[in-house]
Amino acid sequence: MEVLRFHLRYTPATIIIDYRSKDEQEERRKVLEFQNFQNENDIDLLARLVLNRCSDLFEGKASLQAQLVSLIKRLKNPSLPLDYSKIDLNVYDLSKLTKEQIDTVKTLMDDTFKKNRITKNDKGFVYDKKVDFDSIPKEASDWDD
Predict the structure, then answer these.
(1) Which terminus, N or C, of the chain has the lesser number of Cβ atoms within 10 Å?
(2) Where are the alpha helices (H) located in the chain, listed in sequence order?
(3) Which InterPro entries does UniProt cross-reference here (predicted)?
(4) Are residues 84 and 62 in the same domain?
């Protein structure tokens, strides 16, 4: 079977899967509606239940399985971007995230820090670097009032 596309419906929480079997040319649709979804805290458990229920669609397809988990997370928090790496930490309100989402964002922040840090073994390392911040143009800010 070949998964063609996923659809999300937020009310009620539903994932719709369009697929085609190998011997048929006709498209089919599987509708998975989640009862009491707001009470479900374990997204991975819910994903495993869906994968077991639709094993013929997802068997051996890791990228589709990852996409399904991402969609379930999206159903849980519709305001969250699908790709965590595109979160603008200066704009996005992190106080609205769940603990799992905050952990993911913190991991992203740690990875960004590790990628940008300069250690004493790096080329261009200066031990006691001094920077004149007065020469940098200042941006207007509410803090300055």
Answers:
(1) C
(2) 43-53, 55-58, 62-76, 99-116
(3) CEP19 (IPR029412)
(4) no
Q: What is the pLDDT of residues 97-123, one digit of tens each?
A: 677 777 777 887 888 888 888 888 888
Distances 113 to 11, 15, 78, 117 between C-alpha atoms, Å: 38, 36, 28, 6
Question: Can you tell me the distance from the alpha carbon of 40 to that of 34, in angstroms, rounded to the nearest whole number?
Answer: 9
Helix axes 62-76, 43-53, angle to 10 degrees: 130
Query: Residue 138 carries which side chain, given as an amino acid letter?
Result: K
Same domain flag for 93 and 117? yes
Q: Enumerate the β-bridge partners of residue 31.
A: 16
User: Which residues form the domain of 38?
Assistant: 1-78
Residues with Cβ within 8 Å of 81's Cβ and at least 6 positions away in sequence, in order, are 87, 92
Residues 97 and 74 reside in one and the same domain: no
Question: What tokens were used for 122?
Answer: 């790096």
pLDDT of residue 113: 87
